[in-house]
Amino acid sequence: MSKKSTTATFDEDVPITQTDIDAGKLILRRRVEGRVVQPKKRVTLYLDAFLVERFKEMAGKHGYQTLINETLRSSLQQSDMEAMIRKVIREELKAPDGSTAFVA
Asked: Is the pLDDT higher at 101 or at 88?
């Protein structure tokens, strides 16, 4: 079953007109530190039932989908941080001649 996305798109450089507002094309743009935050994209994702239930329990009254999104974002940031730390350690362990030096 294929369904068209209902996510609206927008062009940053085109100003919003009264006609757009009247036609219901107004898209509220959240700004963080002066930058426009990109809208989220709708996806269909199959997760294990116990994961969904666990996230619902953890989220309480707040949206469990938001909690899943934050968890995924945090995981990616942690992975990026780990890669950066490994790179720095490798560079620090290299001897001036380019060979690998091991600190005893």
From this structure: 88
In angstroms, how far apart are the furthest CA atoms of the chain? 72
Any idea which of 8-17, 46-55, 57-66, 74-83 has the lowest mean pLDDT?
A: 8-17
0.85 cut: is pTM over it?
no
Residue 58 identity (one-letter amino acid): M
Buried b (16+ CB within 10 A) or exposed e, 84-93: eeeeeeeeee
- Looking at residue 73, its amino acid is R
CB-based burial label for 33 (10 Å; 0-12, 13-18, 19+): exposed
Let me know: does 64 contact 55? Beta carbons within 8 Å: yes
Write out the H or E segment, with its range, that includes residue 32: strand 31-32
Contact present, 58 and 66 (Cβ < 8 Å): no
